[in-house]
Amino acid sequence: MPHEVLVIAHAPEPAGTLVRLVRAAGGEPVVGDTVPGPLPVDAALAVVQWPLEASTELAVARAGVALVLVCADEPGPQVWRDAVRLRAETVAVLPDAEPWLAARIARAVRSSERAPVVAVVGGCGGAGATTLGAALALTAARRDLAVTLLDLDPLGGGVDLLLGAETAPGLRWQDLRNAPGRLPPGALRSTAPLACGVRLLTWDRSEAPRVRPAAVEAVLECAADDGDIVVADLSRAVDDAGRVVLAAARAVLVVVRAEVRATAAATRVVEQLERFAGDLAVVVRGPAPTGLPAETVAEALGLPLAGDLRPEPGLAAALDRGDVPPVRPRGPLAVLAARLLASALQD
Fold it and tell me: What's the whole-model pTM score?
């Protein structure tokens, strides 16, 4: 289970302390004194007493599990050399570091239970990424899921305008310029604007659109802890804030018009995204003026095809009127959004 925490200790203490900390955080300790085989890669964290047995070193080195070394005395050069070689996050000296270690274990357990983050990015201008993001959020809200929609495209039209919430009171990105490392539980749920069942975090147009990566990280953590899914509308130019989202995203959807020039532009966007995210897929928006198949667009970009979005009747006129996007239950946009949402929640 993802909330398992591996506790590897060859002495009763710190083993007893580590088990207590894991259980206090709501995790399930998996205890051993050595590791004869590979570590489970879906564990939330591994906490290992130094010095390590040779078999434990080998297992830890091959696993993709976050690692913290613990010891009872001030760490000497050999401890730090082992920590660097094994790519450990740090060395925790007990009992002094017990409060820090308790918080780190709790964060690992919470992280494994957080809501998924889905990012949408336009492969070129006017591709419809913001509309798809809004459709995902609206579809989630209509299924009684707690959803937060983050607007991280400062030069875009704004998701609040799309959902008719530009004058709604509540928190904006500029209010978080001095945000601490963590936001209080429920901070977004109680202060961010609400439109059509969707919590929004967007820009105050009266100020320069800037947001610090630390604020984005705090918002993502808060939204994912308090909700069922987080949707983020990202800029095509990947900035520091976008990189935070890409690192946390379960899925990144690149929306591309079914045109040759749009596909060529999207190639450069995908090259940027692939540096920071692994799970990329393309949504192709038709109709294609020349009959260009969606599969050909996906093949040109080297990405799996997540969906082919056909025209949504009345969508363009509704957006120009300032109406909420008419995501009709059986329309192309709703059908695609429902499929993408189900995939994100099941992974």
Answer: 0.69
